[in-house]
From TrEMBL:
Upper lineage: Bacteria, Pseudomonadati, Pseudomonadota, Alphaproteobacteria, Sphingomonadales
Electron transfer flavoprotein alpha/beta-subunit N-terminal domain: residues covered: 23-211
Gene3D superfamilies found in the cross-reference section: HUPs (3.40.50.620)
UniProt keyword annotations, A-Z: Electron transport, Transport
Organism expressing this protein natively: Pacificimonas flava
Keyword Electron transport tagged: yes
Quaternary structure and partners: Heterodimer of an alpha and a beta subunit.
Summary of the function given for this chain in its UniProt record: The electron transfer flavoprotein serves as a specific electron acceptor for other dehydrogenases. It transfers the electrons to the main respiratory chain via ETF-ubiquinone oxidoreductase (ETF dehydrogenase).
A GO BP entry: carboxylic acid catabolic process
Swiss-Prot/TrEMBL cofactor(s): AMP
Entry annotated with the keyword rRNA-binding: no
Pfam families: ETF
Protein name, entry field: Electron transfer flavoprotein subunit beta
Membership in a protein family: Belongs to the ETF beta-subunit/FixA family.
GO molecular-function terms, A-Z: electron transfer activity
């Protein structure tokens, strides 16, 4: 089995984002960047499948500026075999990303594509589903457990009423949820080895994909600050306050 894992370079989850003074977007200057946490889970799951003998090769792919090579190196240090970087200065919208990944998937012919269910910078939660639709592949989203059962992949996913288990025929798309696994820390020897692993650089034009934006961001603002609460002495006062605010009859 060959596994393809798309990964995205995002603001580190420990960093509080800052809005640009002109409100045109998020300020990325001198901000720590790292691999999207959900994608890190996807890489970990792919590497575990390889270590279990289920997969023979793990390929990580990223779409973004040249610095996204650092994100690919992280995936290679975790255990992936090689990387593909599609260089673009402007981050495409989810449909553009899905179209590029569809072309890469057609070239690489993987049996399984594992990716994070969403990126923590835009929270779109669209690429996995769009990719499955473009390829006509089966999909299992929000996976909290993944295991091979004969010629099928069993995907356990969390739904409102509990757990749902799907049996997928390969090739398939799987998107990862937080409870799927605990990603490993790359060891120093593996980080050094990752520097020698190959990364193939391409552009969107190489795939004949138009990634021109379809949406325009008019303004980006921070959410309003939460107002201070008020402590009331008893339930009757609370009810009276709620009626005064119009949230209770």
């Amino acid at each position: 089995m060959k596994i393809l894992v798309p990964v995205k370079r995002v603001i580190d989850y420990n960093v509080k984002p800052r809005i640009k003074s002109d409100q045109s977007g998020v300020d990325l200057a001198n901000v720590k960047m790292s691999m999207n946490p959900f994608d890190e889970i996807a890489v970990e799951e792919a590497v575990r499948l390889k270590e279990a003998g289920t997969a023979e090769e793990v390929v990580v792919v990223s779409i973004g500026e040249q610095k996204a090579q650092e994100t690919l190196r992280t995936g290679l240090a975790m255990g992936a075999d090689r990387g593909i970087l599609v260089v673009t200065e402007d981050m495409p919208e989810p449909l553009g990303i899905a179209k590029i990944l569809a072309k890469i998937t057609e070239e690489e012919s993987p049996d399984l594509v594992i990716l994070g269910k969403q990126a923590i910078d835009d929270d779109s939660n669209q690429v996995g589903q769009m990719l499955a639709a473009l390829l006509g592949w089966s999909q299992g989203t929000f996976a909290s457990k993944l295991e091979q059962d004969g010629d099928k992949l069993k995907v356990t996913r969390e739904i409102d009423g509990g757990l749902e288990t799907l049996a997928l025929s390969t090739p398939a798309i799987v998107t990862t949820d937080l409870r799927l696994n605990e990603p490993r820390y790359a060891s120093l020897p593996n980080i050094m080895k990752a520097k020698k692993k190959p990364i193939d650089e391409k552009t969107a034009a190489d795939f004949g994909v138009d990634i021109s934006p379809r949406l325009e961001t008019l303004k980006v603002t921070e959410p309003p600050k939460r107002e201070a609460g008020e402590i009331v002495p008893d339930v009757d006062t609370l009810v009276a306050k709620l009626k005064e605010m119009g949230v209770a009859a």
